[in-house]
Amino acid sequence: MVIDAVSKKAAQKGIHTGMVLADCKALFPKLEVMETEAGRAEKLLQALAEWAIRYTPFAAVDLPDGLVLNSSGCTHLWGGEAAYLEHISTKLGSYGYTVQIAIADTVATAWAVARFGSHRAIVNPGQQRQVLKSLPAAALRLDVTILARLKKLGMQQIGSFIDMPPSVLRRRFGQELPKRISQALGREIELMVPVKPVEPYQERLSSMEPIASNTGITIALKKLLDTLCNRFESEGIGLRQCIFRAYRVDGALQQISIGTGHPSRNVNHLFRLFEHKIATLEPALGFELFVLEAPKVEKMTREQAALWDAASQNDRKVAELLDRVAAKVNPSNISRYLPVEHHWPERSMKRATPIWEKPATGWRSDLPRPVHLLPLPEAIEVTALLPDYPPMLFLYKRQRYTVVKADGPERIEQEWWLSDGLYRDYYTVEDENGARYWMFRSGPYDGERPKWFLHGFFA
Predict the structure, then answer these.
(1) pLDDT tens for residues 11-23?
(2) Hey, which end of the chain has fewer CB within 10 Å, N or C?
(3) Which pTM was predicted?
């Protein structure tokens, strides 16, 4: 068994990774040892990378012991790069982690300075070459065979070979060395995979002091909505889904989300959808960062944009009502149906997607149709004076109904190109309690008892 990781105190005693456990025990009999759990380090780094999203939209895992954060456009939210590093280092330190951290123009330079430079360093723009010259060759993440060859030639510092022509380095050490130098100097792109996809429409707002009141949360949300909707206005798009995330000082994440039926960039309307959910947030000691994301947006036509103008008040009110209802219930419970050119009643409509889709044809209004149409007709037992006459009574779900009025039949046949099944003769009947039903007899009377079905209910 060998040492996989050591604490700071153990390192001060001379214990390092790779040592045999028995030798360490011989030196320090009271050494506290814990077995390494397979995959635990990877899971921990993944969790820390997701936690670090509060500092940047782009956070990636750098195995076996690092994180890569893209700080572009984020440091001003914490008062500059120095304050940004201080905040991250202090926060991780409060969780019990020893952190070495650096900011540079390239991932490779930041990696090198964080591990071989000062504890908390900021490399000024364009100064990678000067900073790297004083660092050991291992800071370039080179293979051990290349490091051994460089050591043999006396090139133990990056400054001893960084200015050599790439062609010379390539002939002597292969492609890896000049590639690592190019990555560190920014001449070659180094790809990283974020733990979560970066949303293109995202706005952030940090707080100098933790915010624990609903008033403070409301102000932050309105500011973020204003900024995001201004972007939408310039790009001619509208919001369909939106997520408001609040990061607590203790590391916990709270979030609420909304959706809209129409693309919208109306700040007041969007805030009203969020408003009743703000109370569900649990600030505890307070929130230090707010993030507003729009994972789903759509282009807005002039007609859709006019929904929010005073000239289209009725349409606007309907759209707002649907959005507010959807914010309180499951959006899947709200549907709009459009007519389809089919004879069979259960096939004569479809669900509108999106909800404002225009119908290709009009609803049939020359004959009565039930308010509630069953998805599939349900079999019933019917007594009729003659087979072609309306029902006198029927049994539905073990309950008997006496018919006092009836109207029909209305014959409906299937399209010949879809099926050659039996036609249906529909009747509208009313029972002794005033309830009305829509039922049909399937096919003609041919000497056998015909089959009857209930298909809908009138109001």
Answers:
(1) 888 888 889 998 8
(2) C
(3) 0.60
